[in-house]
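Please, why this fold?
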Amino acid sequence: MTPPIKSLQRKFIQIVLAAYIGIIGATVAAFFVSQKGIARQLGRDFAIQYVLKEKAGLSAPIKQELALALKMADTPILKEWALQETDPVLTKKAFDELESYRQHFRDGDYFFIVNRSLHYYFNDSTGIYTGKELRYTLNPKELSDQWYFSTIEKVHGYALNVNYDRAIRDTKIWMNVIVQNDHSVLGLCGTGLSLNSFIRDFIATRNEGVVPILLNRDGAIQAHPDPTLIDQSSISKQGNEHSTVFTLLGTDKDRQELSALLAGLLNPRSSNEAGALWIQTTQGERICAAAYIPELDWYALILYDYQRGIGLSRFLPVLLTTAFSLTLLTALLLLILRRIVIRPIAQLTQSTQLFSQGQKRAVLPVVSNDEIGVLTREFNAMTESIQSNTEKLETEVQRRTSELRSLLDNTGEGILSFGMDLLVDPGYSRECDAFFGPLIGGKRIDTLLFPDNPETAQLFRRAIEGALKTTDPYKKNLLINLLPTEINLGGRNVALRLRPLENNQVLLVLNDITYRKELETRLTDERKTLRFVVNALTNRRLFLDISEAFYRFLRSKPETLPIIEIYRQIHTFKGLFLQLDLLSTPAALQTCEDRLKILLNPQDAVEPDSVTQALDFHEVEESFNQDRSLLIRYLGNPFLSNEETYSLELKDLESLEALGKKILSSPQTIRDLQLEEEIRVIQRLRTTPIFELLHSLPVHTLELAGLRGKKIRPFRPEGPNVRVRKDRYEGLTLSLIHLFRNAVIHGIEEPEERRQKGKPEEGTVSLQIQYSDGSIILIIADDGAGLNLEKIETLAREKGLGITPLFSSTNPGTLDPALTNLLFAGGLSTRETADLYSGRGIGLGAVAQEVQRLGGIITLRTEKDRFTEIRIQIPDQEVFL
């Protein structure tokens, strides 16, 4: 009795639904776990960018007015008048000068106070006080005049004072500039600027959850959406009378952290324009971002409620879209399964039951009791029913295939034999007809194999005759093995196997390997692609940096540069892309080099159009985009994004935490010292171990040596792994590939040549790092053939370059500095032909350009057949050991 069928469709639906529920649950859980962290990070970034934007918009008009007020205070006529106020001529000139400044001030008003007489002069935008500018005389005993005496006593240079005029409902910033002559105070002058429009734009934010605030250096509030919190007449108040931002904070810890943040922004050594921290206010947790406006001596500060600005509702569309997409995908998957799997299997099951009555099929094991199981059982029943007929047919075939020709015809190979006369014996396989055509018996095998190449046919004939004539088995096999093993026959790749037989006969087996060769070619291309993708993946930051530099070069109108500079840039990029195993771009850059090589002849005038034509970067950029497309195909678009993740060592984090606690708990007398140490640690985190910038050089050197058939002992950078600024040293470390390539191509000898010189087959290339007396020293050395100084002298004379003494008179073994400079000037190569890896003479020039940019020097030591050593010394005081 056949057991009941268990529906395969029902099984699959159950599995898909279970997976769907699990994915939806995991997605929702992950969403709620990560939403708050994402919102906090986005909120912090938004707060910093917002406060920087408001700082830029607020400072510009005030700086313009302040500059004009400072210029007015430095006017010689006004200074002279302040000393001789009673002189009518000077008074007339002074009022004319003040009137000129009034017309240029934004609000059209000014004031001027003479310190000797305490006379207060004023005129406004209406000019109503023209002719009666002297308004009154200040009284030291009057409370309303204390602002002037406080300013003269406390301020050096200028001060900004904010007042809110309740009568006209306007906030005005008064720019009080000291008028002085040789450290003697002559008076006070300035102007007022209505801040209503600026402050209104600043505090009237349309961003939800943002509270903008303006502070002076002491934290006194100068602008706030709530006017009652503004600190009016800040300069004349005592310390405890101010309305400060610290009164808005909930804890002493937050006040201390905000005070440290504001103090840090005042530090001239700080590179941060803005900072942010998390604080508790009376309304809850907020992001506090601040930026210092040095021209105004104010802070722009915002309190940001990120839960309102970037709340859960912002992420709900993403969550709903994800859930809807998963639901749609599940439904579509079920529909596709039903159409392309379940229904065809049912139809195939029905057909199999019919085939079981006489059709031939393979026997399959029964592993389940579903539709596939039914199909398998019926299939096995079908094969069992035809088993007897199969056995009868096999007996008949065995009887009729007793002849050798029938056996050969079923091998799928072309098999034939020939003798000393090279004539094909009649008993050959049918596959030979596919290779040579019908009726080849009695024809010469050499002309069949090489119909269009009589020279090769003659060599084949002589080798066969020699092999058949000799009685020495070793010599016979040697001559046979010297014959070609692969040929092209009628557009097909054919493999040849020759075996000597008895009676001076030779067996020849031919196989069509066209498809295999195509597969090998495809496999080679795929290996190159894989190598490129893996290299880019393991050196992602290097690839992105080089790509960005290459795009900048393509977009920078390189045709406007000197030809030798273009040539050097292209040569460097070609070497970098070869290091990264790009597939198409190096060959395209090689083509550009070949074109530019023609234009480098100094005796020929170069037309601008010829440079433009030679620099047709369309092909180069297309090749580069093809290489990038491969990365996108295998790694996806995000791989090429410029996002970076910074990793911090635990000891550095602990150091920062310890320093932060010390700043909060230390007395004022040592706080500055601790802050300097903190900055030092942060600067260290911005650096990169130099070994990371150099790690790819040994790999590329060993790979290039393998391609050149040379042996090099594996090596790696040695010495202290000092930390340096990546943006400063990246260009140099990238250009060093030229020195290692020269060491492999020009320095290290072939293994046989090294043995003849008494050296080990494996050459030695080394890279040493030293740090001494405020300088980084890079030493690249090899134990190869040394520099060919005679050839260098000859090439220099041919190019019309001056020749200096070869070696330094004070330092034996070291090349004279002038000769070193000549070698590193570029365009001098001892190779007669160029290829992808060398021969341009441009690489050393690229290295020299980077060393010169860093203010360093290059020295070179060499000895024939012993060594070459290049020493690069870069002064740098910002190195961390």
Observations:
- The chain has six domains: 1-310, 313-385, 404-512, 526-640, 650-684, 687-875.
- The chain has 31 helices and 21 strands.
